[in-house]
Amino acid sequence: MNERADRPGADAGAAGSSRRGFLGVAAAGLAGVMVAPGIRLIEVAQAATGAAAGPTAGANPKVRWGLLIDTTKCASGCTDCVDACNTENGLDPRPTPTSAQWIRKIEIKELRTGRTSSAPMMCQHCASPPCVDVCPTGASFKRADGIVLVDRHTCIGCRYCMMACPYKARSFVHEPLTDQKPDVPRGKGCVESCTLCVHRIDAGGKTTACAEACTKAGHGAIVFGDLNDPASEISQRLREVASVQLRADLRLDTGVRYQGLGA
User: Fold this and answer.
1) How confident is the model at residue 47 (pLDDT cuts 50, 70, 90)?
2) Residues of CATH 3.30.70.20 domain(s) within the chain?
3) The whole model's pTM is what?
4) Pairing mode, strands 148-150 and 140-142
5) How would residue 113 be classed by pLDDT, with cut points 50, 70 and 90?
């Protein structure tokens, strides 16, 4: 598991001190907005932490993990990927309007042709993630291998990242949590989203829970792999088929690609 994102034994006193330190810097920084309207939240975060979030221990900078989703194989009523994600990460199997949801099924309509497709929507693990840019504490960060995560120890629950995400892929934990998964620590008052099953990857796993469930069910609509490896299945598929990035106009360079859209 990533060291920075998951430190079950982290010292509470140190975390409290860190947050108090941030609030002091933030107050000064935000006061400066009155005279320097060009200041960005990320600059306040860097003043508090000393540097922007960088590559983390255990993450291979030569790798970029991603997903290819074939919408032509994704059935509208199928929730196998959602159910697998909930089970893997200890999420509510019967989510309420306020429950955390890391992956959801959506219907996408192509405006030009009127054609509709069903597809799973999750964190798109952008190369230039807006959630990281607006996070005032550095809790939202991108690993060297492209996985975008939230450090629950430094997340203050401001939810700026939720507002910045164009995919509505992040959730806020409103209620106390019980019976958590040891490999997927979560916490009330924090924001969270799809981690590309980083706990599996860091333990040497080869795929995510959603892709595994989709394959076992015989759908084969989700492929996980290294986008930087020309020999990987996902890279070979991307060379053979047409794919798109959702909201490509934002130029975020997403790690999740979709096949079968726009036709």
Assistant:
1) very low
2) 12-54+129-177, 65-125+195-259
3) 0.78
4) antiparallel
5) confident
Length reported for the chain: 263
Q: Which two tokens stand for residue 53?
A: 């979030």
- Whether the per-residue pLDDT at 96 is higher than 60: the answer is yes
Q: Measured between alpha carbons, how far is residue 100 from residues 49, 164, 167, 217, 218 in Å?
A: 28, 17, 15, 25, 27
CATH of domain 65-125+195-259: 3.30.70.20
State the SS3 of 26-90.
Answer: HHHHHHHHHCCCCCCHHHHHHHHHCCCCCCCCCCCCCCCEEEEEEHHHCCCCCCHHHHHHHHHHC
What gap in Å lies between CA 129 and CA 165, rounded to an integer? 8
DSSP code at position 114: -
Gap between the Cα atoms of 242 and 231, Å rounded: 18
Q: List the structure tokens of 127.
A: 């190369």
> Is 12-54+129-177 a domain of CATH 3.30.70.890?
no
pLDDT of residue 94: 85
